[in-house]
Structures are given as C-alpha cells and as structure tokens.
C-alpha cells in the first residue's frame, strides 16, 4: 500500500494540475483536444490515489511487487504517450508549414509576374 503522505501529495498535485489546466483552457492558451489526455491522466491519478487498494491491485496485475514502482512505471508510460502525441502534432504542423511556405512562394512569384507585366505597360 502507498503511504498516506504520498496519497496526499498525489491528490493535491492532481487537483492543482487540474485547476491550472482549466485556467489555461479558460484563457484559450490550450486547445481542448490537447488537454483531453492530461485530463484523463489527472483523473486516473486521482482515482488511484483516493483508492490505494485499487492501485495495489493494478500493481499486482502488472506483476509489480511494490505499488510505488507501479506509480513510476505508469508515470513513465504516461509521459511516453504524451511525447508520442506531441511528436505527431509537431509532424503535422511541420508538414502544414512546408505546404504554406510553398503556397506563399508561388503567390509571391505570381504577384511579381503581375507587377512586372503592369510595369511594362
């Protein structure tokens, strides 16, 4: 079982993180589609910290003897999921930037041709 001190830290940390997330959403500094994963992780941490026997059961199911080690495992796994989703978003943004840069170059070229043809007349 996890200690009471760790339970309190997890509950307070997840509540504070949730409040910060809501504030970012309210100010439109974070889009809802990006926050869904964070909300899921915070709810998961909150449930496991409020019901430590469930946490012990999850640890035993994963074949981990100590629940604290399961906490580290789940934290690392969650961060890997977040990193993967961010990598996908960065790849999408990079492709979109490349496409927009090409369109801008074509438009500049066309505008220059139009200006040159107007100046000749």
From TrEMBL:
Q: Which UniProt keywords apply?
A: Coiled coil, Membrane, Transmembrane, Transmembrane helix
* One Pfam family from the record: DUF2304
Q: Does the keyword Membrane apply?
A: yes
Coiled-coil segments on the chain, per record = 90-117
Q: Which domain of life is it from?
A: Bacteria
Q: Which organism is it from?
A: Paenibacillus illinoisensis
How is this protein named in the record? DUF2304 domain-containing protein
Look up the signal peptide feature and give its range: none
Residue intervals passing through the bilayer: 6-25, 37-55, 67-88
């Amino acid at each position: 079982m996890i200690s009471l001190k760790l339970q309190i830290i997890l509950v307070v940390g997840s509540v504070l993180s949730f409040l910060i997330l809501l504030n970012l959403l309210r100010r439109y500094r974070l889009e809802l589609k990006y926050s869904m994963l964070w909300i899921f992780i915070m709810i998961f941490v909150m449930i496991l910290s409020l019901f430590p026997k469930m946490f012990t059961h999850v640890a035993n199911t994963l074949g981990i003897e100590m629940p604290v080690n399961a906490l580290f495992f789940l934290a690392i796994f969650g961060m890997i999921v977040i990193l993967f989703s961010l990598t996908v978003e960065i790849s999408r943004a990079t492709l979109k930037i490349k496409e927009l840069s090409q369109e801008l170059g074509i438009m500049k070229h066309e505008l220059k041709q139009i200006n040159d043809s107007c100046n000749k007349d």
